[in-house]
Structure formats: C-alpha cells, structure tokens
Design a protein that fits this description.
Largest sheet: 10 strands, mixed
Shape: globular
Structural class: alpha+beta
Strand order of the largest sheet: 3-6-5-4-7-2-1-10-13-12
Number of helices: 25
Radius of gyration: 28 Å
C-alpha cells in the first residue's frame, strides 16, 4: 500500500483498549476456504449476501469467534460431520462475533453458513459506494481490518485461505475481483458473475469493483491485464498500460519466478484514501496517480505513475505471495515494496533518477526517529486501536533505507539470493521478519539478524561522528541522534554498516566497516596522513546522521563538488538536521544554502529550496518577511538562471521536476516578480484551456496567482474544480483553493471544505495546504475545532487522530489549545495521545530552535541583504 500523505507522518497510536490477546481470533476453529455471494447494486444504499466457510476444528470446543462488523446477521447455521449443530451468537466490540455451540464441536471439518444484510460504506473504506458523473459504483479497501465490515470472515492476515466470490450485479455493470471470471449467467436486469477460486490469501487483499466501468487492455505482460476506469476516463489509461509491462518483466527477472497470479487489473478509483493498494491481481489506485492526460501530463505525474506501479507490483511477491503473520510486521511488507519498487523504477525508467528521491524520503523517517516519543519500528501490536496508522514513514521510508544500507553491506548478489530463497521457501504462506533475516544471513554469511535487529527493534537513529586523528586514523563514535539540543536518552547501540570516502588530494577512496562499538578507531586503508576531506556517509546510503569537527566539516563543504548528486543532497539534509539540533548554527547553515544554491544539479536545488522553506517557517515573522524575501531571491536566484522559467523541449526530467519547487519558493517566499508576473498568465491560460499550459507551470501559476487573489479568482478556481474532467487537474485546483491569503477567500475555502461537492478523501486538502502557512495556522486550527463533528461524520474513524497535526507548527500556545481540545469528551479519537506526543515533540523542537537561533539568523539575513558582513561561518550568536 502507498499511504495517503498525512499517514506518512502519523504515529502508531495505542490508547487504552482490550489487548489484541483478547481480541485476536483463536486457533481452535480456523477457516480453510470461504465462498462469498453478494448482491450488489451500487445505486442502492444497501446490499445482501451470504458466506459459506469451511472450518477445521483442531480441538474440542463449544465456542469460537469470527468477524462481522455492524451488519445484520439474518441466518447463522453450522453443520458438522454428523449433521446440523445448534449455534447461538452474540456480537461484541471490534466486529467480533462469539458463537456458542451445543453440543461442543469435535475435531474435524465443519461448515458455517451465514446470510446477512449490510449498508454500503460511504467514507471510502470497506465495501463502499460512490456516485460520479451520474453513475454509481462500488469499490473496496480492506486493509487493515475492514473486510469484516463487508462480510463475515476471519479478518486477520494469518488466516490465508482460498476464496471464491460470486457477485450479482446490474446487467449493464462490469464486475471484477482478484481472479478471472469463471462463469457469467444473465437473468433479466441482473447478471451473476462467478470468479475463479483464489490462491491462498488473507482477507485484506480481496478486492471488488463494480459499476459501468471501462477497460483498456495491457499488452505485453506474461498474464492478461487491464486498466479499469469509471465512465469517460479510459482515454487517460494509455500511459499506465504502456508502463506496466516493463515493470512486471523486471520484477519477474529479479525474483527469478513468474508473476504469481492469473491476471492483473489496475483499477483507478475516484474516492480512495491510500495512494494505492496491493490487492492480489486487482491493484487499486487513487485515480489521479494512475490516469494521465496525454495532452498535459508532465514528468512529475509520470514519475508518480512509475513508482506507484513498481511499489504495488512488488507486493505481488512480497506481501501477497508471502504474507506477514501479523500486523507487527506490516513495516516489512511496506519497506520491502518501497525498496524493490524504487530499484525496479530506476532499472526501467532511469530518467527519473529515483535513488536521489530516496534521500528525501529517508529524511522523513530520520526526522521521526529524532523525536523522544518515537516507537521502535517493530514492536508487538498490543491493542485493537488504529492499525491503519502503522503505515507511517518508519514502515515505508526507514525500512527502505535500511534495506538500501544492508544491500550495500551484503552485496547486491547476496541480497538477491537471500530474497529469492525467502520467496521460494515461503510461497503461499505467512512469515515474520526472522524468516527473511535468516535467508539473508544464509546467502551472505553475515549476522544479518543482529545487525538489522539493532535498527528495527529499538527506537531512534544513530549519529556517527568521525574525527581524523592523524597518520590516516579516524575515530568513529556512535550515539542516539535527537532533534532537541541537550535532550537526554537512554544509551542505545547499533551495528552500523558505515561507508567512508575521502580524498588524498589526487584520488577519492572508499572503505566499508561495521561500527558496533560506542567508539572505535579505524585506519584509512593506504593513508599515511590526514585526508584532504572526509565524508562519513559515502553514497548517502547509510541510515544515520553524521557529523565532523568544525574544520573537517568546512573542508567537506568546500569540496562538495567532488561528491555525487545523491551525496550533495544528503549533505544538505544532514546539515539541516544538525542545525535544528543545535550542532550547527544559523549563519553557517544559511551560508551553506547560499553556496549550494549555485549547484548545477536540479536535485540539489530541490534540497536547497527545502532548507530555505524550513528557515522561513521557523524564523520569518512579519517583521522579517521583507528581509527574508530579499535573501531568498539572492540565495535561489542563481538556480533560476540554470533551470529556467519554462520547460525546454527534451530537457532532463530532474530539471522539469525541480522547476516548480524553485518557482514556488521564489514566488511565494521571495516575492520575485520574475516569477509572479508570468505565473498569473499561466494560471489564466490554464483556466481557459488546460492543455495550453505545461502542467507543472499550471500548478505553479494557480498557486502563486492565488496568493494575492480575490474572491473573483477564487470563484473561477471553484468552478473549474467542479467541472475538471482529469483527476490530476481536480487535485491541482483543489489544492490551489488552499493557497489564497486574503481573508475572504480564506474563509470561503474553509467553508467550501464542508459544504462543497468534495469527496471524503478531499475535504481536508485546502486546510492542510493553509496549515503550512504560519500566518494562517491559528485560523485553520480554529476551523478544525469548530468543524470537528462534521469532519468526523465524513472521514474514517482511523483518520481522526491526524487532526492533531493542525496543532503543529512553532506555537506552544496553539499546542496547549490542541491538547485541551482533544482532552474533552467526544474529541478523543483512538490513539490521540500518542499523536499529540509526536506533535508536542515537533512544536517544542521548533520553538527551541527559534529561541536559540533567531537573533543570529536575523543578524545574518540583515547583513546579507544590506551589504554588511556575512558573519563568521562558525555561527557565533
């Protein structure tokens, strides 16, 4: 699964609730096969169905449990080897149903039959209906625990069984699921569609889609495939149909075995919370990610399409063919798919330079790992609360970064042998992390379990300090990195694959080692004296922060041109973390941003832009806006000359991708007329004829023109949003509605979020965009508190704790108000305390950074923009 954006920073949240030991289903009675028959007409609010579940009773018992949440069970019948068995039942929390039998069940085979009635969900979870373009559709999203809301089942990943689905649908509707159609039977205005029995799979990977769907065939794959869309959208499916075959072929080569299912449908869903979901043989996607307008799609959309497809198709082997035993290993599913997906994306479409993109993704995880409240990536899932929130930056980005680091340590060939052996030995079964560690250890001859376990089973990330000592020796030390200067933490030790690089003045050398002590001295191979410069994270592949003594840090900064693009990007992001933690001071960090702003690589410029935005959000209050704008133009102006205002035919994708970030910073923060004047023209041209403007220019234009936009412009955006035929344009326009700054359009945008024709997965988008603007954060927080009950009726309960993020920023007063609000009855969704702990850490860190550095930053900016001395690079305050 690819998470929705807010889930990237959501926590694993556990409030007081019954333990999973009480809520998990037992093993005395387990399913071996389930057939499901559903009568689905998406034009109606409800549906009916029946299930037939073949059971195996392991030991004598008079009760067992299964899942069926908030539905009417009309008939529950149990039959054993000797005939019918009396059964009664009661419904409990978390969708649990407890069945009691008379007499007790003897070991052996039994059959459970249930007839039921249910309402379609309307918040884009479980089995839900939606209407679009005058047509009704039904789709599913079951991960993590929402299959139980659609039909009775054993809704845990460990119960990996064959399934067979039969759907009765309107005769004019298409129906699809995980397997090909076995038989279709028309009967008047309805049609019965029976699908082939599935291979063993858990309930969360089942998929259903029905309605007047359109399809586009995918040619050139080893199995039949289609892109599936709602009415009128098939014209946008060509790019996905073209990209999928080479990705699937590359995955088959890597795993050394064919795609494991009999067909592959790629389904574009208009209302969808995740970015995508790896249902076996029937992958669902947010429509904006899968469907590209051939007339307007730019490199950003194409890169998203490639990386999403590669991630989800990787899951067909890792997650689907081989499945985690329990949710405490969800991180392993997602980490592996992120790692493999990016590897395959780079192999098949190298123009997008995905390895450099990974550096920014790793940054998100390192930021989480720098907070005192962070959990270990792998830990027992102890309570029945918000399993969806396991899908955070630790599960995806940290795990991926660890696999990158350990692949470099083990070697790509050994890594591949281990992965293939793991898949071979556990196909169609459930596993846990220890099984993979064992396979990798066997393939490489190294103690993978101990080394990886040191990162997976304890919280945080290390700081590796490298100090040259003379005579070619370097002292390496490790400690936990924390974002707050002076924070204390219990001692933690990692086994860290470290990769050093250094220059002797004529040649760059590399050396790999495992740092497993608190401190150890390393002799640089072949070196007889100190190097000219030293880089403690060569290749930028290590999951750790790093630091150098002052003069060595300056030496590396001055020789940054000797580093590759990934390393230069990592150098900037590492410097940002050192600045925020108090190990680097404002003037030195700002001077580094200025220096690197002259870099020729667009990917490096993106990292510079990110740094400029971070500084702005912490320090640029009203009294500093003009000074900061001037400094922004000075720092980023050189990059504009290299990247340009508009695309040039045949330019590299990284330049096209960096341009909107650069233009947005110059226009929004720098108030640069070189950008803002043409931006208004791009916005107006897009509103008149979308295909007349490059899509990334249109995105920038819409956003920048909104900054000083009035009500009339707001209304033009609103009308265009409501009629946008292309999903990406719809999202682009909705985001732009959150870009206005004048009071009246701001109020209209917030009101429109609750009253406009927004889908459940869209209603928070304008407010989320506004919450990134310091001047609007208090107003957006107030809107959230007033609208809380309305929001709660429209989004899934598992998403409500994310509203705590509106209490973020640098304001301790707003944080206090957020804590007070979520402490009141009716405002305490599952897991809110842990989410508030994350927000609290971030706010306190931001406030501490502001108080510590604001005077030095102001002095530096003033001197730089008035021609005064820049100040010492060592950052005296």
């Amino acid at each position: 699964m690819i998470p929705r954006p807010l889930a990237l920073v959501a926590a694993l949240l556990f409030a007081s609730a019954p333990a999973w030991g009480d809520l998990r289903l037992g093993h005395d009675v387990v399913p071996t096969f389930e057939s499901i028959r559903l009568e689905l007409d998406p034009g109606r609010p409800d549906y009916t169905g029946s299930v037939r579940i073949e059971l195996m009773v392991a030991s004598r018992t008079d009760s067992f449990r299964f899942h069926a949440r908030e539905m009417t069970l009309k008939r529950v019948a149990l039959r054993g080897p000797g005939g019918p068995v009396d059964v009664t039942y009661r419904e409990e929390e978390s969708g649990l149903v407890v069945a009691h039998t008379r007499p007790a069940l003897a070991p052996g085979a039994h059959v459970l039959e249930i007839d039921f009635a249910n309402d379609f969900d309307t918040r884009a979870t479980s089995l839900y209906r939606l209407e679009i373009g005058g047509h009704a559709y039904a789709f599913t999203q079951f991960e993590a625990v929402d299959a139980r809301g659609a039909f009775p089942c054993w809704d845990e990943p460990e119960f990996k069984i064959p399934w067979q689905l039969t759907l009765v649908v309107p005769a004019t509707d298409l129906a699809l699921s995980n397997t090909p159609i076995e038989k279709e039977t028309p009967a008047g205005s309805r049609r019965t569609v029976a699908f082939e029995r599935t291979p063993p799979m858990p309930s969360y990977l089942l998929a259903i889609a029905t309605g007047p769907l359109e399809t586009v065939p995918i040619e050139g794959m080893s199995v039949p495939g289609r892109v599936v869309t709602v009415q009128g959208a098939k014209r946008l499916a060509a790019a996905a149909a073209q990209v999928a075959p080479p990705i699937l072929a590359a995955l088959e080569r890597y795993f050394g075995r064919p795609y494991p299912y009999r067909k592959l449908d790629l389904i574009a869903v208009p209302e969808f919370w995740p970015g995508a979901m790896e249902n076996a043989g029937a992958i669902t996607f947010a429509d904006r990610a899968l469907l590209l307008d051939p007339a307007t799609a730019g490199p950003k959309q194409r890169r998203t399409l490639v990386t999403y497809l590669a991630h989800e198709m990787s899951h067909m082997w890792f997650g689907d063919l081989v499945t985690m035993r329990w949710w405490d290993d969800l991180w392993l599913n997602e980490s592996f798919a992120s790692w493999m997906g990016d590897k395959i994306s780079q192999e098949t479409f190298p123009e997008f330079d995905v390895p450099v993109l990974e550096v920014g993704a790793r940054q998100e995880a390192l930021e989480l790992d720098s907070r005192p409240s962070i959990r270990a990536m792998r830990q027992p899932v102890g309570d029945d609360v918000n399993l969806d929130q396991l899908a955070d930056a630790l599960a995806y980005n940290k795990g991926q970064a660890l696999l990158v680091m350990f692949e470099s340590w083990l070697g790509p060939e050994a890594m591949q042998r281990g992965v293939r052996d793991y898949i071979e030995h556990h196909a169609w079964k459930n596993t846990d992390a220890a099984d993979l560690w064992s396979a990798l250890g066997k393939a490489s001859g190294r103690d993978v379990a101990a080394a990886l376990g040191s990162f997976v089973d304890q919280p945080g990330a290390p700081l590796v300090t490298a100090e040259p000592m003379g005579d070619g020796r370097v002292r390496l030390r490790q400690q936990r990195f924390l974002a707050t200067a002076g924070s204390a933490a219990r001692p933690v030790r990692w086994k860290i694959p470290v990769r050093l690089s250094w220059s002797d003045g004529t040649k760059v050398h590399e050396q790999r080692l495992l740092l497993d002590a608190e401190s150890q001295i390393v002799r640089l191979e072949g070196a007889r004296r100190d190097p000219v410069w030293l880089h403690p994270n060569a290749g930028e592949g290590g999951y750790y922060r790093w630091s150098l003594p002052d003069r060595w840090r300056q030496a590396l900064n001055e020789h940054a041109g000797a580093l590759d693009v990934r390393e230069r990007t990592g150098l900037l992001r590492n410097a940002a973390a050192l600045f925020e933690s108090g190990q680097l001071h404002g003037p030195e960090y700002l001077a580094l941003l200025e220096r690197m702003g002259r870099d020729k690589a667009p990917q490096v410029i993106e990292a510079v832009v990110d740094g400029v935005r971070r500084v702005h959000d912490v320090f640029a209050g009203p009294e500093l806006e003009t000074t900061f704008a001037a400094w922004t133009r000075s720092a980023l102006g050189p990059a504009l000359g290299g990247i340009g205002l508009t695309p040039v035919a045949g330019e590299p994708a990284p330049r096209s991708l960096a341009r909107p970030e650069l233009l947005m910073a110059l226009g929004e923060l720098g108030r640069d007329p070189r950008v803002n004047t043409p931006a208004h023209g791009w916005a107006d041209a897009f509103l008149e004829r979308p295909a007349s403007v490059d899509p990334l220019s249109a995105e920038v234009g819409l956003a920048l023109a909104a900054l000083d936009g009035d009500v009339a412009r707001f209304e033009r955006y609103r009308r265009a949003f409501e009629t946008a035929p292309v999903p990406a344009d719809r999202r682009r326009l909705l985001t732009a509605l959150g870009q206005f700054r004048r009071p009246e359009p701001v109020e209209r945008a917030l009101a429109y979020s609750m009253t406009g024709p927004l889908r459940p997965n869209e209603i928070l988008i304008p407010a989320q965009r506004m919450s990134g603007v310091v001047a609007l954060q208090d107003r957006v927080f107030q809107w959230m508190t007033v609208s809380y009950d309305s929001i709660a009726r429209r989004i899934p309960p598992t998403s409500l704790s994310e509203l705590a993020l509106f209490g973020g920023g640098c304001s301790v007063d707003r944080l206090a108000a957020a804590r007070a609000f979520f402490a009141t009855p009716g405002h305490a969704p599952a897991g809110i305390e842990e989410q508030l702990s994350r927000v609290t850490d971030a706010v306190k860190d931001c406030a501490a950074l502001h108080d510590r550095e604001v005077a030095a930053v102001r002095r530096y900016l003033s001197n730089r923009t008035t021609g005064g001395p820049a100040g010492a690079l060592q950052g005296s305050r």
